[in-house]
Amino acid sequence: MALNPEFIGRTYPAGPSYLVGREKIREFARAVGDSNPAYLDPEAARALGYVDVIAPPTFAIVLSLDAANAALFDPELGLDYSRVVHGEQSFAYTRPICAGDELIVTTVIENIRSMAGNDMITTKGIITTVDGEPVATATSMLVARGEDE
Amino acid sequence: MSISFDDVTVGTELPAAEYTLNRLTLVKYAGASGDFNTIHWNERFAREVGLPNVIAHGMLTMAEAVRIVTDWVGDPGAVVDYGVRFTRPVVVADDDEGAMLAVSAKVTELLDDRCVKIAITCKFQDQTVLGRAQAIVRLV
After folding, report:
1. What is the CATH number of the domain that holds A131?
2. Taking the model in full, what pTM does it have?
3. In Å, how far is B137's CA from the nearest CA of chain A?
């Protein structure tokens, strides 16, 4: 089923804020087996000029895909989530995410296209602090595989 | 210890690394990331949807691959941009060996503002699993 191209450019306002916890960053770093002191040790992070431990470069996915679900589960979009795979992912950082940050994510549907029976949807999550300071953008391209028949 | 922009040229290679994923890694990543997609932990379901076995989260592979960059630069906050395409699944069998990712990287471009572009190669069973994997890092 083709996705509704009228959704290109549609913006989903930020939901509730996400408070970045020191222990959550540590949990994430340990889950990927990364013992970089900047993720685990506040003193080491401060020595690098940060106010507390910083998050690994891919941590923003925890916020951004959750926020994107508001768009992706919009019934009028027509996305069959059971057929979705992750096609591409990128992050652009104004600064690293830091423990103590209170962040919000605004989601924009950047593009929708069809190729070889598959639908591709690109969402951009614009991550800022609740005070409006830019932090990062997370761009995700998801592929909804076409029906086999 | 930190890498200076002045010590880097196009072609500078980063120390290669290997990272092993197993079922425990996948479970831990599912919990830490909140991605509980069934294909990452349920072999029966994975086979039902046509996969050879449970596969790793693409985001987990992406997280492992960038470690070659953050370990090299020291300050992971120096990574200002990072992007990949997911081109092939990393199959994680229920065994003691797990799935080994072989990661290499080199500097491909010197940019303004003491930034460099790094191309990352991530292979599983001798096949590339990430396409166009690139990071931009601001050096001191």
Report:
1. 3.10.129.10
2. 0.96
3. 10
